[in-house]
Amino acid sequence: MNWREEENKAWRFFGRGLPVFLTMAMMLGLILGGMAGVARGDNSLCFGCHQDESLKKQDARGRGLSLFVAEAVFKNSVHGKLSCSDCHTRVKDDKHAEGGQKAADKRVNCGTCHEKMEKEYLQGLHSKMIMKGTERAANCYDCHGKHNVLASKNPKSMTHLSNIDKTCDRCHSDVGFVKEHGLGEAIPKEEFRKSVHGKSGEVTCTSCHGSHSSLRSLIDPKSTIFRSSIPQTCGGCHPDITKQFVESVHGVLAARGRSDSPTCTTCHGFHGIKAKVDPDSPVNEKRIALTTCPQCHAAERISKEYKLTTSPVKSYYDSFHGLSYQGGDTYSANCASCHGVHDIRPSSDPKSMIHKDNLQKTCGKCHPGASENFAKEKMHAVASIRGEEFGEKVVGWVRVVYIILIVLVIGGLTFFNFTDWLRKTIERMH
Amino acid sequence: MTKKYLRMTLNERIQHLNLAVNFTLLVITGFALSFSTAFWVAPIKDLSMGMTYRGFLHRLCGVALVFLSGYHILYLAFTERGRGIVKDMIPGLKDAKDLWETLKNNFFINRPAKVVKMPRFNFREKLEYLGLIWGTIVMTVTGFILWFKTAWLMYFPMWTWDVAEAIHFYEAVLATLTIIVWHLYSVVWNPDVYPMSWAWITGDLTEHEMEEEHGMELERIKAQPKGEMREYAEAAAVGGGRVYAIRRETTEQDGRKTPSPRRFYKIVQGFNETIKNWKGT
C-alpha cells in the first residue's frame, strides 16, 4: 500500500523502519533467549555433552584429557549455583565442540573473583615455579579441586585439615614427579600420617609450610620453614619449649645463622616426627646417646672445625654410664640427663646444669648424697698417658702397665703350656 | 681297677665348685658390661632392666666369693688338713727348678726327657693358687670401691675411683685369660688328662696321674710303712687324719650292682684311661 495514504499516527511515528525494528527486536530476543541456555543457573546445555564419561580430548602434548564433569558433584560444591561460563568465560555456546585448541579455555582464572587470594598466591613458591616455567607446579585447582571445590570446613574438601596431606602427597609423594622436578626425596605417603603430628589430627602440611603467600622457599627469610625461623614455627604450638630453646646454646647459635647448630628439626626430624616413647624416635632415651647427640658431637668435621679438644662421646662410651647405656640400661645417665634437653647451656653459664656450681646437684639427682668430689674433676676424661689432667695420666699409666703385664704373663704361660702340649703330643705319636 | 689317691676331700670339692660357678658368673656378668655392644650381650639389651639384673647378679656372685674366701681362710687355719695345705703350698726353690727342668724337657734339651718328681702341689698349682689369692684380693677391693662410689668419693678424689675401675677391668682380663691358658690346660687340654681330669668331681687321682704330676708325693705315700695311706681330715680325731682307706675297693659281687654315680664315674674313667694308654692299634 502507498504509505503516503496511511492516516495512522503510529505508523507515521516509527516511519518506514518499524518492521525492521520489530524484526531486529525479535531476533535480539531470540538470540538473548537462546543464550539463556548458558546463562546463570541453567547448565543443562553444557551437561548435555559433558556428563558423558567417555568425553575426552587431547591436550597440547597429545595426552588424553577427560572432559567429564559429574553433575551431582558440581551441584554439591561451593560453586554449584554458578554457571559454567562464569568460570569458563570464553565458552558461550557449543561452538567449541567443533574442536581446535583455541576453541576452548586454556585455563580458568580464579582470580576473577578471588582477587585477594590470587595476590597472595603470586607471592608464594608454587606460583614462582610456574612463572619460571614449571607448568605442573600447584595451581589453585591442584589443591582446591576443579568442579568439586568444597569449603575447607567440609570434611570432604580437598583442603580440609584431614585431607590436606593427601592433597600435597599427590605431587610430593609421587616418585616420578619428584624426580622430574628435582624436589628432593619423595615423601613416603604414610610417613606423616603415622607421625605424632599426623596422628593428632590437628596438624597438617600447611600448619608448618603455610599456604598461598606463606608457602615459600626454604631460603626465603619470610618462609615459615626458613632455618632460623623454625623454632618460632614449632613454637606456635610448643611455646614453652621454644622459650627454653632460644636461650640455649643451640638456639642462640642457630638464630645467628650457624648452620652446624641444630634446630628443632635436626633432632626431631620433620615429617615423621615420632613421640619420645616410640623406639624409632631419634629422641627416644635409648637412642639419644647413640645417634642424636653423637651425630654432631662425635663428628670429626665438627670437632676439627670448632677445635673441640674433648672427645665427649668416646669418653662417655668408655665410662660406666656409657657402657651400661649401650647395653640397654635406661637408668644410666645419657647426654640429656646431665646436659638437659632444650635448655642446654655451656658450662660457663651459671644457669647451666653443668656449671661447676650446679654439677653436684646434677649428679645428686641420681646419686643422692653426692659429695663435692663427684664434680671436681674433668667429666669427660679420656684415660691416656698424654692426658691433660693428673687423673687421666694416672689411669693411662695403669692401662699401659697392665697391658704389658698381661701380654708378658699370658704370653709366657701360653708359651710354656704350648711347648708342654707339643712335647706330650709328639711323644704320643711314637 | 687302679689305685686311687685322694686329692680333694668332699669339702674341698664343694669349695672348688662354689669358686668355679661364682667365678664363671662374675666373668660373664662383668664382661657383659665392659663389652656391652658385643653380640652375645644383645639378648640382655631387649630384656627390660636387663643390665640392672646383670649388675645385681655380678655383685651377688662377688659377695658369695667374699664369703667363700672367708670360709676358706678359716678352713686353712682351723683344720689340720687345711694347715697341711698351707704348708705344702709355700713355693720354694724346688718349684723354680721343676719349672726350668720341665721347660728344658719340652724343648728336647734334655734327651731323654728327665723325670721330674714334683711335690703334692707342683709349680703349676702353686702359681695358680697364688694367682688366685692375688686376683681375689685385687678384685674384691676394687670391686667394693666401684660399688660404693658415693661413699668412697666422700673421702677420696675421683681419679682414685677411675684407677680402681681400670684395675678392676684389667685384672679381670688377666685372671680370665690365666684360667683359660693355665688352669684349663692343666685339667683339660693337657694330653696326660685329656678330655678332663676328674679330680674335681671324684676327688681322686690315678696312679699314673700321680706319677706324672706329683711323683715326689707318690714316693712319700708309698714309703709309708702301712702302705697306702690317705689323709682324711674327717678322721682327724682318730689317727691325726691318716687312716686306711675304707671306701672304694669294690669287689665283684653276684648279680647286678645298684647303680650309683661312683660306678658311672668309673666307667667314664675307664674310657679315659683307655684313651690315655692308647699306643696305637
Largest interface: A-B, 47 and 50 residues
Mean of all residue-level pLDDT scores of chain A: 85
Give a short account of the largest sheet of chain A.
Answer: 2 strands, antiparallel
Question: What is the chain-wise order of helices and strands of chain B?
Answer: EHHHHHHHHHEHHEHEH
What is the structure about, briefly put?
The complex is a heterodimer of chains A (430) and B (281). Chain A is mainly alpha-helical and 430 residues long.
Output the keywords.
heterodimer; A: 430 residues; mainly alpha; two-stranded antiparallel sheet; 2 strands; B: 281 residues; Fumarate Reductase Cytochrome B subunit; two-stranded antiparallel ribbon; 4 strands
Structural features, described:
The complex is a heterodimer of chains A (430) and B (281). With 430 residues, chain A is mainly α. Among the domains of chain A are: 3-38; 117-225, no CATH class; 303-382, no CATH class; 384-415, no CATH class. In chain A, 48% of the residues lie in helices and 1% in strands. A two-stranded antiparallel sheet of chain A has the order 1-2. Chain B is built from 13 helices and 4 strands. The radius of gyration of chain B is 22 Å and the shape is globular. The relative contact order of chain B is 0.12. The chains are: A mainly alpha (430), B mainly alpha (281). Chains A and B meet through helix 22, helix 25 and helix 26 of A and helix 1, helix 2, helix 3, helix 5 and helix 8 of B.
